[in-house]
Amino acid sequence: MKNPTPAQLRQLKAAAKTAAGRAYAPYSKFTVGAAILTSTDRIYSGCNVENASYGLTNCAERTAIFNAVAAGEKRLRLKCVVVYTPTDIPTAPCGACRQVINEFGPDARILSVCRGKGHIASSTRELLPGAFGPADLA
Ligand code: THU
User: Fold this and answer.
1) Has domain 6-132 been given CATH number 3.40.140.10?
2) Is the CB of 46 under 6 A from ligand 1?
3) What is the pTM of this model?
4) Fewest CB atoms within 10 A around its CB: which of 9, 10, 72, 87?
């Protein structure tokens, strides 16, 4: 899978930051935005959506992916996932999101960025080694 271009990376970061501003996070106050780049070079974004029944919270990464599927992406394949938090240190995707990212992006790049300087550049394979995925059901 090709890497995102510098221009795409800028767009992904901007989209993730905008999405974080839309988060519904009244309980944790921890706002997260995510943007995904598809193999066909389309960008979708999402934010975390919390619930009074805390466990029902949906993370930003999963919202972005579900947003792409709901928009009609039939053969969704992820090139890149960017996560933005308005924090001093970057935030890596949670375990549940790693599993959902793997479903559509087993060879995706994953980049976490924040308000501060730091970032985490990683990949699905690195964050979820030995993953269970669609091929296991074939
Ligand atoms: N959260 C995300 O949206 N993505 C992550 O990868 C980590 C956690 C959200 C879930 C919850 O709304 C808040 O951050 C605190 O856990």
Assistant:
1) yes
2) no
3) 0.97
4) 72
